[in-house]
Amino acid sequence: MWVFSIYGFYSIASAAKTDGTPDPNMVMVRSRCKHHLQNLQKRCPELAGSKLLSPPTRDCGYRLIVPKSVWVQDLQEIAEEQTWAACQWIERTERASLTDMFEKCPLKNSIIARHRKNLPKRFGAATQNAAASE
After folding, report:
1. 77 shares a domain with 12
2. Cβ atoms of residues 15 and 26 within 8 Å
3. Longest Cα pair distance anywhere in the chain, in angstroms?
4. Which of 26, 57, 127, 130 is 20 to 30 Å from 116 by CA-CA measure?
5. 3-state DSSP call for residue 79?
């Protein structure tokens, strides 16, 4: 599952037991940006005690392993915070705006390259810049 929020961009997958099989009670909340997970830990005190892991040679370089029940509750709270109708109307706060987050995202050029045909025309300049940097 992918979650794109005002706190960061996350990939969530089942965590593995010590024998390598999926653990139905635990999840890995992964991110390519360390500060996205730190933002999540600040927002969700239940996650603050989870160790921020940085395993080598992984596509998402940072992760938290947490009980699924805790993640579900935190995700529900984050979803309930949503009060905006569309991204362009989100006011800047102390939290990173979605636009700022996307601009800093290491996947930005990859996302634009893969989805260029489906992006709204207002992203035209961004897609032109991404194409030039590929």
Report:
1. yes
2. yes
3. 49
4. 57
5. helix
Adjacent-strand bridge partners of 10: 3
Burial track 75-103 (b if 16+ CB lie within 10 A, e otherwise): beebeeeeeeeeeeebeeeebbebeebbe
Q: In a 3-state reduction of DSSP, which class is residue 113?
A: helix
- Per-residue model confidence as pLDDT tens digits over 29-43: 998 888 899 999 999
Q: Coil, strand or helix: which one is 88?
A: helix
Range of the domain at 53: 1-82
Q: Whole-angstrom Cα distance, residue 107 to residue 97?
A: 17
64 & 95 share domain: no
**Is 60 in the same domain as 2?**
yes
How many structural domains is the chain composed of? 2
Within the chain, residue ranges assigned H as helices are: 34-43, 45-48, 68-81, 98-104, 108-115, 124-133
User: Are residues 16 and 38 part of one domain?
Assistant: yes
pLDDT digits (tens, 9 = 90+) for 56-83: 776 777 899 999 999 999 999 988 887 7
The pTM of the full predicted model, rounded to 2 decimals, is 0.61
